[in-house]
Amino acid sequence: MVPYHWVAFLFFLLGLTACRKSETNQTQATAEIPSEYMVRGVVRQLTLGGTSLVVKHEEVPGFMPAMTMPFDVRDTNELARIKPGDLIQFRMLITTNDGWIDRIQVLGTVTNTPADPSPIRFASSVPVLNAGDPLPDYVLTNELGKTIRLSDFSGKVLVFTFIFTRCPYPDFCPRMTDHFSRTLKKLASNPSASTKVHLLSISFDPERDTPELLLAYAERYAYDPKKWSLATGAWDQLEPLTGHFGLVFGRDVPPEKMEHNLRTVVVRPSGKIQAVINSNEWDVDDLIREIEAAAK
Fold first, then answer.
1. How far apart are CA 82 and CA 69, in angstroms?
2. How far apart are CA 263 and CA 14, in angstroms?
């Protein structure tokens, strides 16, 4: 006859195994399954580092309009034979917080597509701005319906980026907005951080991004209006402002020619630019370092 304590121990092991299986099954069940879209487009550029493609893609019905934008490629072996001008088909995978492409197939070549296109410029008199340059003044309307000027933030470190609330791709506008939200939280938790900081998310979709929509979007991120504003403006203000930082958006730019690149700008209290941060490959700590440098 098996002693009672061995029977009890056996039931304990069986229970532990069942618990572990339950935890594993729960983890697998809660793992997010990406949404999938098949997309076609023309390769405009292979980015430095060889981990992404800039593609002028067609409309993705029910998801996003046609535009030119970079896509992350996790399996870089797929890029071995890709070159600018290739007409490709690929699978786009989207989760709540991430997006990437795979299953890239070359369908042909578009010979009249330049390998490194020059940015569309809205006005020849608008210079590209870099660190050390003074930031010109522009007039916008914020999420509360109030008129604001960039010069209103003189004496503070101003950080601004460009978004539009309809942007569905998680690595782009949603990531920039989430970074801003987490930056404010981290600054608030650090008693030695500069308190004279203001964040500004500027929408380049003024026809749709009304103050009411901008406010609703901001509230989803638990924003603090004393530290963070969302705004848009008339095209005669938005076109030159975005043009200073190489963005390609405007009322006369059709969706298929939009170039959805990313810029985040840090401005010193003096009104001079501290840094222009390209792409989405920065994190909150990177931004806070630039804010601290600008505040000195």
1. 16
2. 55
* Same domain, yes or no: 171 and 282: yes
d(CA 107, CA 87): 5
CA trace torsion 143, 221, 198, 264 (10° rounding): -100
Residue 235, class by beta-carbon neighbours within 10 Å (0-12 exposed, 13-18 middle, 19+ buried)?
middle
Residue 11 domain flag: no
pLDDT tens, position by position, 141-170: 999 999 999 999 999 999 999 998 988 888
- Kindly report the CATH number assigned to the domain that includes residue 94: 2.40.50.320
Q: How many domains does the chain have?
A: 2
Which is it for strands 197-203 and 273-278: parallel, antiparallel or unpaired?
Answer: unpaired
Tokens 């987490």, located at residue: 182
Task: Encode pLDDT of 179-220 as tens digits.
Answer: 999 999 999 888 766 679 999 999 988 989 999 999 999 999
Give the structural domain span for 89: 35-109
Residue 10 domain flag: no
